[in-house]
Structure formats: C-alpha cells, structure tokens
Amino acid sequence: MEVIASRTSAGARWLRARWLRAGGRLQRGVFVAALLAALAALTVAPLRGLAESALAAGEAIAERIGIDVIRPPTPVDRPGFLVHNGLIGLKHNDEVKGMLILYRYNSTVDDWQPFNSIVPLAKVGWFSNNAEFQRPEVTATVLQDEVGYKRVRYHFSPFANGAHFSLDAELHADLPEVRISVVPEPDSGRIAEFSLQTTIGFVDTVTEIETASATFRAAAYTVRDGFMVGGLWLTLRPSGKQALLRGRELTQYIAVERTLSGDDRLEVEVRRTPWLRGLPDPGENWFELVRLIRRPFTADKRVWRFGLLTSPSP
User: Fold this and answer.
1) Alpha-carbon torsion 50, 55, 59, 62, what sign?
2) What is the CATH number of domain 83-310?
3) Residues 296, 298, 303, 309, CA torsion sign
4) CB-CB contact of 216 with 244 (8 Å)
5) Are 142 and 158 in contact, with CB atoms under 8 Å apart?
6) Distance between CA atoms of 304 and 262, rounded to whole angstroms?
7) Which value, to the nearest 10 degrees, does the dihedral of the CA atoms of residues 154, 235, 283, 133 take?
8) For 36-50, 112-126, 189-203, 275-289, which range has the lowest pLDDT when averaged over its residues?
9) Does pTM top 0.90 for this prediction?
10) What is the pLDDT of residues 243-290, one digit of tens each?
11) Are 221 and 285 in contact (CB under 8 A)?
12) Which residues are bridge partners to 100 per DSSP?
C-alpha cells in the first residue's frame, strides 16, 4: 500500500476507490450525491466536526448499498496510542517526549507490560542530539492497519542540530518483534550517524550482551558510580547483525539488516548503583543503556529490529 503524504491526496484516493467499487447506475447516483455532499462540507465548511459528520454520512449510505468502505490513513490524536500484534506493542511515552515504549503481552497477568524503550540519537556535523533531552513533538499516523500487518509512522519535530526524521514501525502477526525504519525528511541536515538507544533500567536487569564475535558480561567491569552519578561507558566493536540482551526474565535482541562494519559500534553504560535513591537495587552490575550506532548513516543502514526470544508468559 502506497503511503499517502497529505490529507488532500488521501481524500482523492479515498473518493476514487469508492467510485471504482460502486456498482450499478442507481448505486452510483446515490453514491455520487453522498460524495458531493461530503466534498461540499469539506470545501464550504472546513470545520473538522462538520467534515467528519459529512464523511460519516457518506460512509453510512455506501454501506447500506453494499459498497466496501475504504478509509484513508488515520492520524492518531494522542501520541500515546498503543499499536500491537497481540504479542508485542509500541507507543509514544506520554510523559517523556521523544521516547517510544516497547510492551509485551503477559498472559499470566492478562495485561500489557513495558519491557524496554527506544530513544533516537542523531549526529549532524559535530553535534549529537538525544531525543530524551530534545523533547521533540511526536505525531503518530497509522499508515496500514490490516489483518496480520500494522505500520505506524512517528514523525519527530526537528532537533536543534538540524536532524529531522520519522520512524516507521512495522509489526507482523505471530512475530514478537518491531521493525523500525528511519525516514529522513527532505529538510533534514546531513545525518552522519544515527542510533536507536534502548533504556533498559529496572524493567528487566540485563547482565549479559551476546554478539557474533564476543559475549560481554557486566560483572567483568569495575564501576564507580553513585546516585545521580554516571556509570561506566564502554565502546564495543561487535560483528554480525544482532546483539542478544540477556536478563533475569527476558532475552531481548537488537538486530540490523546489514552486517555491522567500519565505524558501526555498540555504546553501553554499566551501572552498579541506581541513578536515583528509592529505585530497586539489583545488587549486581547491569547494562543500563545500549546504543547500536550506524556510521556512516547510509540508506542501507536505516533499519533496526527489536524483539523478544524468551518470555515468562506461556
């Protein structure tokens, strides 16, 4: 399905699809009258409420005469909309702008539970900006919502360094994975490197990162952090296409579609002490932040995949 870029083009395709599916001279006459009423409402009365009422009336008539209703891509009013495939889900954080939250369905408690988060980082020139600190405005738009497949676009307002992009999230049925593609906007500055950072925190303490070339254990490092004191940052140079994040309950993965090479890298923060007092203390080292960075950020390096290998849910 082609992405429809604007309300005007979406409306034109929507009207054309209805016309092609209308059968019979009488049906077409009734259908055209309904569409003209809807179009007049959109032209003469641009108020959203009147337009939606006219479109709803047209849909009701179309359905009564047996015409399949094809709706255009739907803007989501609230960024906190949860899109999911029954196993894994994604939504924008209502409290921290610029952060997306990964959810899994836990059938044991019959509820959706967060298990990780995704934060974009983009470097333009000498300046690297983090969405968690930039707090960009994020607009979510449903591009496809079909049986077995969903796609949502999260559009981020421009960063201070000139980076401007959207993230397309795709979910397939029966696959506990979210595939995210970075879509640079035409007015974006040239992005030299890009990362989708995972902020694991205490949702599930990750103590081991396994890649094709090596396994990294948090316990192997000496950390001198403290409350509101940064942990130990490491730069890892793995090979292959994915990193397994092994925790107490879950094994997650971050994967890419082109093998890591050149200046591609993992940057991780190891902690021993919770960032704030009152947070749970796991009593051991863990990986708090993981960034899989693609540099140079070329067209064939724009896809990340986040998923689960194991879950306590049956």
Assistant:
1) positive
2) 2.70.98.30
3) negative
4) no
5) no
6) 17
7) -40
8) 36-50
9) no
10) 999 998 899 999 999 999 989 999 999 999 998 888 888 899 999 999
11) yes
12) 92, 118
